[in-house]
Amino acid sequence: MIKIIDINFLGVSSAIACFLIESNQELILIETGPSTVYNNIKKAIKNMGYDIKKIKHVFVTHIHLDHSGGAWRFAENGAKIYVHPNGMQHLIDPSKLIHSASKIYKDKMHMLWGQIKGIKKENVQSVDHREKIKVGSIIVESLHTPGHANHHIAWKIDKNIFTGDVAGAKIKSGPALPACPPPEVDIEKWIESLELIKKENPKVLYLTHFGKTTNVVSHIDEMKKRLRSWSLWIKKNRLNNDVEELTKKFNEYVNTFLTDKAKISDKLIEEYYTANPPYMSVSGLLRYWDKKT
Question: pTM of whole model > 0.85?
């Protein structure tokens, strides 16, 4: 049984999830959120009848702080953290990760992500593409899925795939939206990763942002369409605007889409923006086009 935990990030529901799975009395957690929500997760797990310190297997999709910023808390409890080979060193020594994130979040770093500590090497295991990890009766398979980041893994268990950010965000009745932060966005690789997931023929996608979707093919096709449209919008508008003006216009572009075309409520828009603020995608897509040209 897969249990969805709403980590209530910044006090907003349905923005970020992690997933708890029991296998022959062994506990698996997929994603950790930042360290600021550790106590929220602890309380949710206790309400389910479990002890958070019994979680000994933590699978993170990638090292961005909303997905793995709290992994060190679980490692201190003795958990093994499974991660992409390109992300392993950043969990052991997060100094470069903190420096990079600080450029984006500036004085909001601690408020958003809290404390970030390195993890002992023996508590981190890098996982190759298609490698399988057996936990109790469950086999967790690694699917390397670059595009959002080169250290991204989607985790497959039976006919379920935990997609991290490769399948974007879909909250409640809203649309599928990508997150395109710097520095590693690659649209071509991202679309290849989405095709890889589609070929696995999963029945359910578990989205970190947020929950589960069973409309797998339509969701993936919508994501591919939106990735292309967002990246082409940035390409078209980037030369005539400075970054500040471009960001303002892109926010308006996304907001207009959500209110006029998707027709979702202000509350749902807040949940989307908590999970995936549009301004982050501007710098990521600008960097993508700068590398392309």
Answer: yes
